[in-house]
Design a protein that fits this description.
Helix 1 packs across helix 7, helix 3 packs parallel to helix 4 and helix 5 packs across helix 6. The chain starts with 7 loop residues before the first strand and ends in a 5-residue tail after the last helix. It has two domains: 139 residues, Rossmann fold, CATH 3.40.50; 156 residues, L-2-Hydroxyisocaproate Dehydrogenase, Chain A, domain 2. It is an alpha/beta fold. The chain has eight helices and 14 strands. It is globular and about 50 Å long. A hairpin with a 7-residue loop joins strand 8 and strand 9.
């Protein structure tokens, strides 16, 4: 059965992240049809109304409705933002038990509709839940993508842009590994339009910048309860890359099958994205220290997820 065509998107979970993602999609004109699905149907109906009222100012005509899992049947992409939220002082990995149960029900319901498109997973802990979605759905690995380190890398590029006085779009640098505390910066290949920058910063300054990246979510959650604008725009960027067949490299959650020396784990790594979902993983050359840190990040994830699959 061939991959579902068109550009219909179904969003499952219209909380802070989901509704911000919907807002980003509409404002950028990325899809022509968007369906919102949430257990709180009254809120979802209101969100659809609210978004529709702004369509006169949107860049393209769009159809926005609210519905249920049956609407996934002809969707090109289903984006999952549902699940228990991260609370102050709680790590993403603390959410595993709660969200695996929720995801089993969600993914089973979506697949029962006849869905034959691409999953984009954003709920935390995203690496483990992307892995679970792949297992629960039975879809090829290319069609189950996690948001990975799309946001962490954006934070990294923003801070480096501030540090060197250039636009973040001219900074080429990645955070890879777990979307969480064991993630790592790839300083060895970080550059500004081709010029390597690691040697221009002290080890102390590099560590300060990385800590700002790694701990940004905790700071934001402490102050306003959740992060949602940045990740929503990252999800919109991935969606655009898929629907427009961009063949662009983005740091998303991909299943490793030998890449970087690891198997059977989803982590954030640079990945070529096109209309089929994930095309292939780009293996960055890592220093010995970076490889050891990635090994630790993978081990961290596997220690958490493995008991659930035994």
């Amino acid at each position: 059965m061939s991959l579902t065509g068109g550009n219909k998107v179904v969003l499952v979970g219209a909380g802070a992240v989901g509704s911000s993602y919907a807002y980003s999609l509409i404002n950028q004109g990325i899809c022509e049809e968007l369906v919102l699905v949430d257990i709180n149907q009254a809120k979802t109906k209101a969100d659809a109304m609210d978004l529709n009222h702004g369509l006169v100012y949107a860049p393209i005509p769009q159809k926005i409705t609210y519905g249920d899992y049956s609407d996934c049947k002809d969707a090109a992409i289903v984006v999952i933002c549902a699940g228990a939220a991260q609370k102050p002082g709680e790590t993403r990995l603390d959410l595993v038990g709660k969200n695996l149960k929720i995801f089993k029900s969600i993914v089973d319901s979506i697949m029962a509709s006849g869905f034959n498109g691409i999953f984009l997973v954003a709920s935390n802990p995203v690496d483990i839940l992307a892995h679970a979605t792949w297992k629960f759905s039975g879809l090829p690995k290319e069609r189950v993508i996690g948001s990975g380190t799309i946001l962490d890398s954006a934070r990294f590029r923003y801070l480096l842009g501030e540090e060197f006085g250039v636009a973040p779009t001219s900074v080429h640098a990645y955070i890879i590994g777990e979307h969480g505390d064991s993630e790592l910066p790839v300083w060895s290949s970080a550059n500004i339009s081709g010029k390597r920058i690691a040697s221009e910063l002290s080890e102390e300054r590099k560590n300060e910048i990385f800590v700002q990246v790694r701990d940004a979510a905790y700071e934001i959650i402490e102050s306003k309860g959740a992060t949602y604008y940045g990740i929503a725009m990252g999800l919109a960027r991935i969606t655009k890359a898929i629907l427009r067949n961009e063949e662009v490299v983005l740091p998303v959650g991909s299943l490793l099958e030998g890449e970087y020396g690891h198997n059977d784990v989803y982590v954030g790594v640079p990945t070529i994205i096109n209309r089929s979902g994930r095309k292939s993983i780009v293996e960055l050359p890592l220093s010995d220290e970076e490889k050891a840190k990635l090994d630790h990040s993978v081990k961290t994830l596997k220690e958490i997820q493995s008991p659930f699959w035994q």
